[in-house]
């Protein structure tokens, strides 16, 4: 599929249809939960061949156009990685903003201020923007991000519009769930995570749905 040439208005972007190579997408985060990537790969494999186009049309990747006309992914990194690993070469994108006029430093300041980047490694430690991977193929595994996704699917918290909300949960779980369990015993890790998620200690996190005390 050839990329369409119509460009979005940076002040009022429209959901225009574009198709580009997954290899050309630039991540704005350093890690993914590989168990969640594997789940998305399994979902893709279950699709009938005549359903894949419809699926891609309903799961466009939101991007920001940046310096050198590069496309920066601001959500759905897991899906992009899963499709890449499944050998899908092109993907549909939905431009959110056109920031090609900005210099590199100004671009990254804007992205950071808007909450459109998450340069934290698998230990939850912030890194410089230069450490961001250049391809979705280079995203590293964070077992706690996998656990955060599994916790949401288990009803531990609700889907929330807060940028990178699953990573906020992952960081909270990082200091509360045993590392060995998070990496090699998902069932035990999920049990520990659910105990925390339903407690008042987790009430500051986005999507928390634990019991509220009666006033």
Verbal overview:
- This protein has 215 residues and is α/β, with parallel strands linked by helices.
- The protein folds into 2 domains: 18-141, Conserved hypothetical protein from pyrococcus furiosus pfu- 392566-001, ParB domain, CATH 3.90.1530; 143-202, Helicase, Ruva Protein, domain 3 (Orthogonal Bundle), CATH 1.10.8.
- The protein contains 8 helices and 7 strands.
- It has helices at 34-46, 52-58, 77-85, 104-113, 143-153, 165-174, 179-184, 186-197; strands spanning 18-21, 25-26, 31-32, 61-65, 71-73, 90-98, 140-141.
- The strands form 2 sheets. A 5-stranded mixed beta sheet has the order 1-6-4-5-2. It has a two-stranded parallel sheet with strand order 3-7.
- Strand 4 and strand 5 (71-73) form a beta hairpin.
- Helix 5 (143-153) crosses helix 6 and helix 5 crosses helix 8.
- The termini are far apart.
- Residues 1-12 have low confidence and may be disordered.
């Amino acid at each position: 599929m050839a990329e369409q040439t119509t460009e979005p208005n940076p002040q009022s972007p429209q959901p225009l249809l574009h198709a580009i190579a997954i290899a050309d997408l630039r991540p704005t985060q350093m890690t993914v939960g590989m168990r969640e990537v594997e789940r998305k790969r399994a979902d893709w494999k279950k699709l009938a061949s005549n359903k894949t186009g419809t699926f891609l049309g309903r799961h466009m990747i939101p991007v920001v156009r940046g310096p050198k006309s590069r496309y920066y992914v601001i959500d759905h990194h897991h899906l992009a990685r899963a499709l890449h690993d499944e050998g899908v070469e092109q993907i549909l994108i939905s431009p959110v903003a056109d920031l090609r006029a900005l210099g590199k430093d100004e671009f990254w300041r804007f992205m950071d201020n808007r909450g459109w980047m998450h340069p934290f490694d698998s230990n939850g430690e912030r890194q410089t923007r230069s450490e961001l991977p250049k391809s979705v193929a280079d995203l590293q595994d964070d077992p706690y991000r996998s656990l955060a996704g599994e916790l949401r699917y288990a009803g531990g918290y609700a889907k929330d519009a807060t940028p990178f909300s699953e990573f906020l949960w992952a960081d909270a779980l990082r200091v509360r769930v045993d590392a060995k369990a998070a990496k090699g015993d998902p069932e035990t890790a999920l049990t520990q995570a659910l105990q925390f998620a339903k407690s008042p200690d987790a009430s500051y996190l986005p999507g928390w749905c634990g019991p509220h005390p009666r006033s």
